[in-house]
Amino acid sequence: MAFWVVYSVGCIAVSGRTGTAFDNARLVWSTERAWRMPSEAAIQGALVTHAWLIRSANVYYALVHFLATGIFLVWLYRTRPEHYLWARRVLSLVTASALAIYLLFPLAPPRMRGETGMIDAGAMYGPGVYSNHPQHDHFENQYAAMPSVHVAWATFIAIGIIMATRSRWRWLWLLHAVITALVVVGTGNHYVLDAVVAWILLVGIMLVLRPPVGNGRLKEAPATIRRVIRVRQPSRRPAGPAQ
Fold first, then answer.
1. What is the pTM of this model?
2. I need a labelling partner for 136 at 20 to 30 A (CA). Which of 85, 96, 227, 240 fits?
3. Cα 121 from Cα 48, distance rounded (Å)
4. Backbone φ, ψ for residue 197 (5° rounding)
5. Are 111 and 119 in contact (CB under 8 A)?
6. What pLDDT digit, counting tens, does each position of 98-157 carry?
7. DSSP letters along the chain, please?
8. What is the pLDDT of residues 147-172, one digit of tens each?
9. In terms of Cα–Cα distance, which of 120, 129, 107 is closest to 188?
């Protein structure tokens, strides 16, 4: 609940900067094309080929974000308290950093820009989470697109479960991050660059706030993941002389 309140208040704080948000949107769109990044319109096009698929993406966007994060934190609190403290700090810093970026760089989502060729999937297929009149919103700001907090939180849930458990199947939680990234882009709510910035932000914060586990749980991880996630080793005090 606290994360939702802080997130909502911060988003509302950047409302009213419509002109800047659309100027930034043009900048992001042209930058993506110059860097030959994946097309948001192509991703959405793949989803809208089946009505059930795009509706499922809308439901995923609307419900899974806060629900999954809440369940994840409650589970850590009850079963892995040492990981819960770490997770709370990381999520707090990720959210605070995202809000700071929203204040500095308001951004209109691609569904609001006709030149992208994208639609508002929520409004057209349902369920929708935003009103048709952003200037009248009181509980969210639709111009807070970069970074995607959906992607940052989903990725951290996957990493947190990988850090806190030993099951060989825990690596499948990375699919949650991938699906979330496809969903936020395919529904027209975020650019691909929003997801990339979210991942960069999360990695940077995790390099500062290291997970409280040993390296043993990362032995079977891909080498690239082992290089990115540097875990903190527990301190060892030399044994004193025998009494």
1. 0.81
2. 96
3. 8
4. -65, -35
5. yes
6. 989 988 999 999 999 888 899 999 999 988 777 665 554 544 678 889 999 999 999 999
7. -HHHHHHHHHHHHTTT-HHHHHHHHHHHHHHHHHTTPPPHHHHHHHHTTSHHHHHHHHHIIIIIHHHHHHHHHHHHHHH-HHHHHHHHHHHHHHHHHHHHHHHH-----GGG-GGGT---HHHHHS---S-S-GGG-SS--TT--SS-HHHHHHHHHHHHHHHH---GGGGGGHHHHHHHHHHHHHTTS--HHHHHHHHHHHHHHHHHS--SS-GGGGTTS-HHHHHH--PPPPP-PPPPPP-
8. 999 999 999 999 999 989 989 999 99
9. 120
> Any idea how long the chain is?
243
Which two structure tokens, joined as six digits, stand for 142? 């639709």
Distance of alpha carbon 201 from alpha carbon 236, whole angstroms: 31
